[in-house]
Amino acid sequence: MATNGTRKLFSAELKMLEAQAGADAGAIEPSPSFHGASRSPASSAGNGSVSNQDLLSAITALSNRIGGGGDLELAETEDIPAPDADLEQDMEMAHNMRSELRAMARSIKETKSEIKAMRVGGKGDDTLLTASSELDAVVMATEEATDSILNASETIEALAAKIQLNAVSDEDRQATEDIQEQTIKMLEACNFQDITGQRITKVVNTLKFVEERIDAMIDIWGAEDIEEVDASVTPDNEGDKGLLNGPALDGEGIDQNDIDKLFD
User: Fold this and answer.
1) What residues have CB less than 8 Å from 183, skipping those under 6 apart?
2) What is the 3-class SS of 181-248, one letter each residue?
3) Radius of gyration (Cα) for the chain, nearest Å?
4) Which of 145, 153, 179, 259 is the least buried, fewest Cβ under 10 Å from its Cβ?
């Protein structure tokens, strides 16, 4: 069988030939003896069998088609539409929004830290409340002192008038008049309490307003979140600064009566 130039076609060869035949619109039908039947050159033209030369030509054509696939792929790539401009704009806006949210989160954290710092130290760990209480104490102390000065001035003026009635000389009468004049100046000077009291009260009201706004922010963010944040500053109570607290407010510190009891 080897002397007549025939050979067996493999399945892969037949499939390539069928693909080539379909592309060229020339149907190449395999021989009925496919799957192991032999073919001869004499019968190749009449019964649809393929010679070696036909097979080589088909392989060459198929190879050329496969080699030209790069141009097809490039053409298909060129047909891909460019990215949508609106999509790029949306992505940029989303990136900017993320950046703004990060900056806002940092600002909120810093604000919480500052609020926590206001709550550190003083009465009830509240700096603003301590300042308001101290200013209220100043107003009350000056008011009490002014009342004492007014009462003493009125007493002095009454005594001076009595001395003037009993004076036997012009020199004594002039002295009592001078005393009364100085007493009047003392009374006029006591007007400072009204002025300073009004101004300090304005400051106290401002501090209370700020305190209310801070309390509102704490309610919004949650007191637990504020407590978890570290204060931006801590009170410096080292050395003498920890001892310079000034007079204690009402209800704070040690009462003088308690001290007196120690010596009883």
Assistant:
1) 153, 156, 157, 160
2) HHHHHHHHHCCHHHHHHHHHHHHHHHHHHHHHHHHHHHHHHCHHHHHHCCCCCCCCCCHHHHCCCCCC
3) 54
4) 259
Q: Which amino acid is at 238?
A: E
Cβ neighbours of residue 6 closer than 8 Å, sequence gap 6 or more? 38, 39, 40, 41
pLDDT tens per residue across all 264 residues of the chain: 444 445 566 666 676 777 666 655 444 444 444 344 444 444 444 445 567 777 777 777 777 766 655 454 544 555 555 566 778 887 888 888 888 888 888 887 777 777 777 765 444 456 777 888 888 888 888 999 999 999 999 999 999 988 888 888 888 889 999 999 999 999 888 888 888 888 998 998 998 888 888 888 878 777 777 676 666 555 555 666 555 566 666 666 566 676 677 776
